[in-house]
Design brief:
Structural class: mainly alpha
Number of strands: 0
Helix content: over 70%
Order of helices and strands: HHHHHHHH
Number of helices: 8
Radius of gyration: 19 Å
Oligomer: single chain
Length: about 180
């Protein structure tokens, strides 16, 4: 037997990945269906974001060829910002696994982390709506039209605010659980 198998640091599959252990522990052991479903949704959204960044790299590299230094720096930051959104996306699952390991997990706390996680996913979508260029905007459904038109009217830089608020909300929920 290896040391990892005897000291309990590896999972049944022998993985030492923090993400794999946290996701596995959350999906298997959480009492909250909301958090369990969020773990699946955040994994899918995270994989989609990574694929989007990786598939976009050749285009970003081609677009920065022959550009000014300012344009190159701006486009070089796009993958970094895209991948930086992964930390708050996986945060609720990591926090829930940490709470479970420390013996502080309960159904109410897990549900709050799941709700905060879903609100973060919603905030990323809201950020895309706010920063969408004119050519990519479509006519919203009649029921949502006033709200969507309001968000379309905001300056594109305001699109940074919703994910920041969502990430702070996740942190605040974790602090509330640990009180």
């Amino acid at each position: 037997m290896t040391d990892a198998a005897t000291d309990g640091t590896a999972t049944e599959s022998g993985s030492r990945s923090i993400l794999r252990r946290s996701y596995g522990r959350t999906v298997r052991a959480s009492d909250s269906l909301l958090l369990r479903s969020y773990a699946v949704v955040s994994a899918l959204v995270g994989l989609f974001m990574v694929a989007l960044v990786l598939l976009g790299l050749p285009i970003w590299i081609a677009q920065t060829e022959g550009s000014t230094a300012t344009n190159m720096i701006g486009r070089a930051l796009l993958p970094i910002v895209g991948l930086a959104l992964l930390a708050p996306l996986v945060g609720p699952v990591l926090y829930a696994a940490k709470n479970r390991a420390k013996g502080r997990a309960d159904r109410k706390g897990d549900a709050a982390l799941g709700a905060a996680g879903y609100l973060f996913v919603l905030s990323m979508y809201l950020s895309l709506v706010i920063s969408a260029p004119e050519s990519a905007r479509s006519d919203p459904p009649a029921l949502l039209s006033p709200a969507i038109e309001f968000f379309y009217g905001l300056p594109p830089l305001a699109g940074l605010l919703p994910p920041v608020v969502g990430a702070v909300l996740i942190y605040a929920v974790q602090r509330w659980i640990w009180r």
